[in-house]
Backbone:
């Protein structure tokens, strides 16, 4: 799996477990994790996480919104 796929899967799993409903009915997730922490969870470099976040956003995802804590 690519870093982008692994990040997307992590975000979905965490949102399912820890997400809270936003005013528009969507689930939101604010992680108290730095890029380095997420990189460690995925066993990749922090730069790879940053690129994966940008790629998800380019695909129309709201990765930065989900990861707004410290990215």
Residues:
């Amino acid at each position: 799996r690519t870093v982008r796929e692994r990040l997307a899967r992590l975000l979905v799993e965490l949102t399912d477990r820890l997400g809270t409903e936003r005013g528009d009915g969507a689930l939101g997730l604010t992680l108290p994790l730095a890029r380095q922490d997420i990189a460690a969870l995925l066993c990749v470099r922090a730069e790879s996480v940053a690129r994966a976040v940008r790629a998800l956003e380019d695909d129309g995802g709201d990765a930065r919104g989900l990861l707004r804590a410290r990215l």
